[in-house]
Amino acid sequence: MVSFQVTKLRQEEKWKIDFDHHVEKASLALRGRLEVNRQILHLLRSLFYASKHVDRDEFKIFASQIIKSNGGIRALEWVPRVKAEHYFKYKQQAIRDGFPQFETREKTADGNFVTAASRPEYFPVFYIEPMRGNEKAFGFDMASDPTRFESMVTARDKAEAVATKKVHLVQDEEEHAGVLIFLPVYEGNNLPKDPGGRRVRLKGFVLGVYRVGDLVENVLAPIIRPDMELAIFQGDEDNPEDFLFKTLSPERKLESREVLNFFGQDWQLVWQGDASGPNQYFPHLIAGMVLVFGFLFAIAFELNFSRLQVKTLVENTVDGIITMDQNSIIRSFNPAAEKMFGYKEEEVVGRKVGLLMPVEFVNRYGDGLERYLKTGDKRIIGTLVEIIGRKKNGQEFPIEIGVAEFKRMGNRIFTGTIRDITDRKKLENELEALSQTDGLTGIDNRRSFDINIEKEWNRASRNQEPLSLILMDIDYFKKYNDTYGHVEGDECLKKVAAGLGSSLNRASDFLGRYGGEEFVAILPGIASEKALEIAENIRKTLINLKIEHASSDIGDHLTISLGVATIINTKDRKIEVLVKAADKALYEAKQKGRNQSVAVLI
């Protein structure tokens, strides 16, 4: 019973580590999406900096393509600052654009729309994409709502993207938790240095509109494991009105909490999961970012954004961004890439991208970009691949890279988004090692055996070498547990595992717990006679441990029976043949009186 409880605790510890790992991945996905949305708004703002007048069609084309490539956005909007004396000019423009009924409106306490009260200036929703489904928001004066206006003022004075608290979207009939993200646009191309100057030169806001549920599900649905649930609230956890998103279940046993800064708003995240959740790894999390960045750069170039504006966009992302021409020559290298690889931009521009990879990697796999251009093999385009990167100092590290393609003035340009995944790979390796370790004895478990026997089987087939397998069973272990108790039984298994390990000297030898009181050893390249010798050494080592066993039918101390099987030719044969042969030999050793080794050659 105690053995079961200890094993159960070990397993629950593993589940908790695995759960925390998945939470970290999901959290990273959410934070990555925030960065994407930040970049989208900055690029949308650049549209207004690139042109003295952005017309409705230009905004529609630009915004619709962004929404198409980036799910979870309810709408993108342009909210100009309209002084009362200029209101007629905006109304005339709306009429010319085909909206004769345009007027600036506000919402009453009972939910009805009325003409906005007279005030010195208005902030109406003037451009909106898509229009369909968002008609009620068209002309709505953002300044008429205190929650929206508070965020607008903060965004204006701080010159940064700021989100609202939970709001009800005016375009929604049903109650959905919504948020708006405002990014200020100022007159001129230079950012005013102080809040006073920003108030004077404010031109308006570009705006992202989101249903929180749609945003979260768009990010997490493809990657979150089935048993995981999430709640997001701002304020009082006991107040249902303070929740922005909730799928929690009281039956979930594991929980993790964190605070996510959502454009100036602190969101409280509560993750829950089962204590026996599936051990699956997430798909890559920044694939959307790769495609979005590639698309945004393409649109920016097509709209003739200045090099400075594109450079500003690139320099403010957390991921490494490089651009390459069709000859794999690096053309730009952002600060995040400089920090990641240790090169300055001027050191890499004009050189081949292979500079950032180990020489042997380039020689073996070639340049993925060159392969694509020659063969049309799109493995590296629009998807994420894990490869090895090489820093300036020669250090190699794992990276995740995705490449998007677009054209500029007839030339093919490639944008690579790169992320250092050293920490992630380390965590994944630790989790993988934990999943292959027996919780009680600390040696490899049955899952690890299944992996290793297949690996050694294939190696033996390639090299035409023998492969030996030893199955071991402690004699009369049930009687040992009945006599000494399960606590002592667990201690006994630990001593046996340590003793068995001391009998296997080669790094290539494998020792694992096969189940209960059974152990298994894989001996690559070992012929039958030598395998039997090793088995006998193991048996004698166990006897020398002198573990008392008063209930044994064959002596006063613990003994072990061993079945040895060796296969000479694994070609066109199945692993089960070797395992069954070893199991049969073990059965024979027991039938002959135990405390002995029996070997067979197949």
UniProtKB/TrEMBL annotation:
Keyword annotations of the record: Membrane, Transmembrane, Transmembrane helix
Listed EC numbers: 2.7.7.65
Transmembrane regions: 281-301
Protein name as annotated: diguanylate cyclase
Residues of the PAC domain: 383-433
GO biological process: cell adhesion involved in single-species biofilm formation; negative regulation of bacterial-type flagellum-dependent cell motility; signal transduction
Keyword Transmembrane helix on entry: yes
